Amino acid sequence: MSFFDKLRTQKLLSFTLILFTLSIGIVIGTLVSSGVKAAKDDRTVAPGATPLVIPNPVELSNAFTQIAKQMEPSVVNISTTYAPKAPVRTRNRRLQPVIPPDDEDQGDSGSGGMDDFLNRFLGNPFGNGAPDLQRKGYALGSGVVVDKSGYILTNNHVVDKADRIQVKFTGDATEYEAKLVGVDAQTDLAVIRVEGKREVSPAKIGNSDAVQVGDWCVAIGSPFGFQATVTAGIISAKERDVDPLQQFQHFLQTDAAINPGNSGGPLLNIRGEVIGINTAIASRSGGYQGIGFALPINTAAAVYNEIIKTGKVTRGSIGIQFSADPAQARDLLRGFGGVTEGVFVTNVAPGGPAEKSGLKERDIITEINGKPVHQGNDLVNTVTATPVGSTVTLGVLRGGKRENLKVVVGNLAQIFPERFGSGTEPEAVKPEGTTVSFGVSIMDMTDQRRESLGIKQSGGVMVAEVESNSFAEDIGLRQGDILTDINHQPVTSTADVKRIQTTLKPGDAVAFRVLRKGRDGYTPTFLAGTLPGNSR
After folding, report:
1. What would the DSSP string read from start to end of 456-475?
2. Among residues 508, 534, 419, which one has the least CA distance to residue 114?
3. Fewer CB within 10 A of the terminal residue: the chain, N end or C end?
């Protein structure tokens, strides 16, 4: 090999060695750079993080889930429409029925207690401060199917005065027509029957007497129209009397969320059995504040059974009155009889069963049919459940001596029509009054009626009924008002009203002064309007 060939070979080998060395350096540099970058990424994003993995779906069953599934077909949404009856006003209440805020307002009775508790509220959907509106009324509520023939339990205030009742079932977009079977105003219950639905699933009825404070409970309904809403809580109290004057409403209290629209829906125990019908809430805001009330199902079932049998509820009465205030009742017993238990009779209805049997004011009833009477509810529950015409035996303490009296039970609505007549027995207790052109039926005030109402002022006539869409209804006259003056002329009898009416003609202004029951008893209220051309 020549010198030049050796030199050329040596150069080629050197170039190859240099090129290989450079390649190795580039590879090593790339690996080091990648490692540094990876380490840097781990250090600044999420050191040690592991990607999340979604597991396969697994059904997690619990008691509340099973209750919701079980009750879905049995709980319904109820919507009603009715013609406007009075101007719509808006306001907030502390105690409110659980109906939605777009229900028509019926006017403030000013009587407080259960009157406010069950009056319609928040009628204007545009908020407080808006002007009065005259519009068609709508109401939304809930109900529970209790019979496979389509019978549904709900609240009276959901369907009250409804011209049309429609029912929707969960998962079924059809709105089924329903008919009113009967109502009981004293317990605020109503029975309706849905038509056109082939198959319905009745709920399982429980026993509310078995309920204990602290038990789990579930409420299902349509709050604010959101159908099939399920909420859970506990039983907060039993035998809760919101208004002592309401003798037939002793509620279960719960903290399960109940809102407007839940009216008539079921309150359930942990076994999915109906233990109550959701009726009202205590609220300063109009919504849920942890205090809801449900009528026990044992009471509701008794009312339902009477309604499906006769279309109404008839309750017994012996024709007496007693103090509803527990403290006052206790003091009366101790002061007049030297006892701590029993019922102190404060008034005996003239011509009633008690008077006919010889029972007198200041008597203390200690027994009924051989069973002790501890307080007023013991007597009321026994007497009202006794068929009208049946005889009960009362153990009475009079002047320190004990004696027995036999009393034939009468009809509560007929003995005390002013208080218990409305909504329970429309045929029997509709007062016979003198119909005048204002659109009212009126009755003379008797001394006994004046005394029972606690009215000291003389004169006046009682408004027994207000005709729908009449002049009287338009200006705000109400059943139970005591009419004392018309156009500054005193009214002492129905004859006075008829005489004054004959002097008026269409287009005349008419001003009324009435006594209206309020929180502090009967107080004056003034109403006025212009007689229309076809005044009745």
Report:
1. -S---EEEEEE-TTSHHHHH
2. 419
3. N
Looking at residue 145, its amino acid is V
Domains of the chain as residue ranges with CATH: 65-313 (2.40.10.120), 316-413 (2.30.42.10), 431-530 (2.30.42.10)
Active site residue 115: no
343-348 and 364-368 beta bridge pairing: antiparallel
pLDDT digits (tens, 9 = 90+) for 453-484: 888 888 899 998 888 778 888 889 999 899 99
pTM of the model: 0.61
157 is catalytic: yes
Active site residue 188: yes
The catalytic position among 188, 255, 474, 485 is 188
Beta bridge partners of 402: 397
Give the model confidence (pLDDT) of 364-397 as tens digits. 999 999 999 998 888 988 998 899 999 999 999 9
* pLDDT value at 87 more than 70: no
Q: Which residues are within 8 A (CB) of 308 and not within 5 positions of it... i.e. 6 or more apart?
A: 151, 181, 182, 191
Q: What is the dihedral of CA 23, 25, 29, 32, to 10 degrees?
A: 110
The closest alpha carbon to 184, from 248, 230, 234, belongs to 248
Active-site residue (options: 157, 184, 222, 323): 157
